[in-house]
TrEMBL record, chain A:
Gene3D superfamilies: Cupredoxins - blue copper proteins. Subunits I and II form the functional core of the enzyme complex. Electrons originating in cytochrome c are transferred via heme a and Cu(A) to the binuclear center formed by heme a3 and Cu(B). It catalyses: 4 Fe(II)-[cytochrome c] + O2 + 8 H(+)(in) = 4 Fe(III)-[cytochrome c] + 2 H2O + 4 H(+)(out). This is Cytochrome aa3 subunit 2. Residues 49-155 form the Cytochrome oxidase subunit II copper A binding domain. GO terms for cellular component: cell envelope; membrane. The keyword Oxidoreductase does not apply. One of its GO terms (molecular function) is copper ion binding. The keyword Membrane applies. Coiled coil: none annotated. The chain crosses the membrane at residues 9-32. Keywords: Copper, Membrane, Metal-binding, Transmembrane, Transmembrane helix.
From TrEMBL, chain B:
PANTHER family: CYTOCHROME C OXIDASE SUBUNIT 1, CYTOCHROME C OXIDASE SUBUNIT I. It comes from Effusibacillus lacus. The chain crosses the membrane at residues 16-38, 58-83, 95-115, 135-155, 171-196, 216-241, 253-271, 291-313, 334-355, 375-395, 416-438, 458-485, 513-533. Residues 13-485 form the Cytochrome oxidase subunit I profile domain. This is Cytochrome c. GO terms for cellular component: membrane.
Length: 155, 549
């Protein structure tokens, strides 16, 4: 097929950029391990309260400055709805849903994941600055979706 | 040279029916949109009988499904008639009408359930939120109706090929077939979800639903859907625009190639909507990310082709210098002016799309109102402005009326108001999204949380943009009604571009649909075969339905 000379240059330029993007994302994901939240564990949404670790939601220290925050999502809130950690803590948020699909996001950080009934999801963040962080649901989940929130207090 | 061809009475009536329903839906959706902006900016409080999420559902379904699908069916039927001496075959007409009525019944069912607050589940109706079965049946009928219309277009294509053996089909017919082929492939996902999962479950025949599978099937359809909106806009840019600016279609083969790439790459990319989701291996997500980025290539080709078309037309009119052609473009003609703004808006829109699709950057913007800002630039501006500008000449052409000087000026004003509105609304939404503001959320301060309070000025700016957009939308609906029923009688040209004489000959392979459809199916099997088989064979624990609104 005949392609115009300038079009060839443009295609090489455009195609080159796209390839560069894909390579950069590939290196990010597989060499540096920066894959998005994609946990593969499952849990029966009807038995969340009887299934570990969701039978005991809350904050658990797992190492020096390292915590796991098990937080059950439901319409319209999180359990627990407030956790406190010291500055510099690395927190892994672990959540599942008891009912519909929810979001789990902390504005100002990269904490952002979907909480889907039947699945467990996880995301990790290190809190370097003290303050009150808002956790909010960013996936529509019903009439009081805009009230669904929790807090992380970093001291 | 093509002589002046008029779309005949029968085809015009069919096309006009679709387009009028489209704009009625658009007008109602615009009212819902304005109310949402005002609520989020906390400028009004909605009455208790009118839920924010109810009008959000109405806005999404009416804009995203009713306005677009009805408009596209009507526009494509009119263009197919235009390239066939103004006529549709009896079979094409019949299927067109059956499709119209099926879609209309589906729309009415959907709208009634939404008004009764039985289906405040938004445009994406994510399970296990459980709406009234009539909502799902209505959505299914809209899709099935659009299939039937598409079959009518395929019948036109087959008829043309039979009467013209060995020849290339007219470009408009080819690109219409490409658009409808993509639609028939991608809607299989949502049809499977609705028919096999949601309808039996909402009727109470099964207790639980496989949520992961339902989301995957929805997004199998959900992203190609945006290309189904975009392709008719591209048809206008590639085939109609050259005639309006007094130029030629740049290249027959490039045009066909771009549409073939859309058919191939639009579907196997849905996981980029599920990047933040559990249950899907990151490797599969990455495959979809790479394919998603590749689909920027036809858009880059389009950018080149559009400017090449502008420049060639300008030079043919005697423009000199590197950018002299720019001044030769018909800026005073609403048919071109709106279109140019639409194309301009697609540049930042496409750049935002690359950000959304990148698996890491997505974590910053996923489900924030940035995404809403993004699709208000793509579908809400690039595509919608193109459709508006088509309506300015298509409606008078179909009704035997004429676009007047005043309609031309109002059309240009409409595009300016719309663009100003989008600068404020979409600009604020993009900013808010980067700050972490969620989408699909009613006005809230999260109990006076300082972060959420700091967002309010941006919500107010977005509402200001919404007000501009609302006035522009009402002006558009007014123009449509005027052109359909009140404009002076006359002749309005259906601008259809001719291919440049010196364009290279088109390779045969580009017209071989069996080849391209097979490649598309193989790509889909590679991207979705294993993940979907796995979701069915090893399903996650099922979720019971809930009504949470």
């Amino acid at each position: 097929m005949h392609i115009h000379r300038y079009e060839k240059y443009w295609l090489m330029f455009g195609g080159g950029i796209i390839i560069a993007f894909i390579v950069a994302l590939f290196v990010n994901a597989f060499a540096m391990g920066m894959t998005p939240p994609s946990d593969l564990q499952r849990v029966d949404p009807k038995k969340v309260e009887q299934t570990a670790p969701f039978d005991k939601p809350g904050l658990k220290q797992v190492g020096p400055n390292e915590y796991e925050a098990v937080m059950v999502s439901f319409a319209f809130g999180y359990n627990p709805n407030q956790i406190e950690v010291p500055v510099g803590s690395k927190v892994t948020f672990i959540s599942t849903s008891k009912d519909v699909v929810h979001g789990f996001q902390i504005p100002g950080t990269n904490v952002n994941m979907m909480v889907v009934p039947g699945h467990v999801n996880k995301v990790t963040h290190t809190f370097d600055k003290p303050g009150e962080y808002l956790i909010l649901c960013n996936e529509y989940c019903g009439a009081a979706h805009h009230m669904m929130m929790a807090k992380v207090i970093v001291k | 040279m093509t002589q002046e061809v008029r779309v005949d009475q029968k085809a015009a009536k069919l096309s006009l029916s679709y387009i009028l329903v489209a704009f009625i839906g658009f007008g109602i959706a615009a009212i819902a949109g304005l109310l949402q902006g005002l609520d989020r900016a906390q400028l009004i409080t909605l009455p208790t009988w009118l839920n924010y999420y109810q009008i959000l559902t109405a806005h999404g379904v009416l804009m995203g499904l009713v306005f677009t699908t009805f408009f596209i069916e009507g526009f494509l039927f009119s263009g197919i008639a235009r390239v066939q001496n103004g006529k549709l075959t009896p079979l094409g007409l019949k299927l067109g009408w059956v499709g119209f009525w099926v879609m209309l019944i589906g729309t009415v069912m959907g709208v009634i359930t939404v008004l009764m607050n039985d289906a405040s589940v938004l445009f994406t109706f994510y399970a296990p939120m459980k709406a009234s079965p009539f909502f799902y049946i209505g959505a299914a009928l809209i899709v099935v109706g659009s299939w039937i219309g598409g079959w009518g277009m395929f019948a036109e294509y087959r008829n043309w090929k039979r009467n013209n053996p060995g020849k290339f089909s007219p470009l408009f017919l080819f690109t219409a077939v490409a658009t409808m082929t993509l639609w028939q492939i991608c809607t299989l996902g949502v049809a499977a979800e609705v028919l096999f999962q949601l309808i039996p479950w909402s009727l109470g025949m099964v207790d639980t639903v496989n949520v992961l599978l339902s989301r995957t099937l929805l997004w199998f359809f959900g992203h190609p859907l945006v290309y189904f909106w975009l392709m008719p806009a591209y048809m206008t840019w590639y085939l109609i625009m050259p005639k309006i600016i007094g130029g030629k279609v740049f290249s027959d083969s490039i045009t066909r190639l771009v549409f073939v790439i859309f058919v191939l790459l639009s579907t196997p990319i849905g996981f980029h909507h599920q990047l933040m989701e559990p249950g899907i291996d990151p490797k599969w997500k990455f495959l979809h990310v790479a394919l998603t980025l590749s689909i920027a290539i036809p858009s880059l080709i389009t950018a080149f082709t559009m400017f090449a078309t502008f420049e060639l037309a300008g030079r043919a009119k005697g423009a000199t210098g590197l950018f002299g052609w720019f001044r030769k473009l018909p800026w005073k003609d609403a048919r071109f002016f709106s279109l140019f703004l639409a194309m301009l808006w697609f540049i930042p829109a496409g750049a935002g799309g690359i950000i959304n699709a990148s698996n890491q950057l997505n974590q910053v913007v996923h489900n924030t109102i940035w995404v809403t800002g993004h699709f208000h630039l793509t579908i809400g501006t690039a595509v919608a402005l193109t459709f508006f500008c088509v309506s300015y000449w298509l409606i008078p052409h179909l009704t035997g009326r004429k676009m007047t000087r005043t309609t031309n000026e109002l059309g240009r004003l409409q595009a300016v108001l719309w663009s100003i509105g989008m600068i404020f609304m979409s600009g604020s939404m993009h900013t808010l999204g980067l700050l972490g503001g969620p989408r699909r959320t009613a006005g809230t301060t999260y109990m006076n949380d300082p972060t959420a309070l700091s967002w309010i000025p941006f919500h107010k700016l977005a509402a200001l943009g919404g007000a501009f957009l609302f006035f522009a939308a009402m002006l558009q609906v007014g123009l449509v009604l005027y052109l359909a029923f009140k404009a002076p009688k006359g002749e309005q040209e259906y601008p259809m571009g001719d291919v440049a004489e010196d364009a290279a000959e088109t390779p045969r392979i580009l017209e071989r649909w069996p080849v391209w459809i097979s490649v598309a199916v193989i790509l889909i099997l590679v991207a979705y075969g294993y993940p979907i088989a796995d979701m069915i064979q090893n399903p996650p624990p099922g979720a019971p339905g809930v009504r949470t609104w």
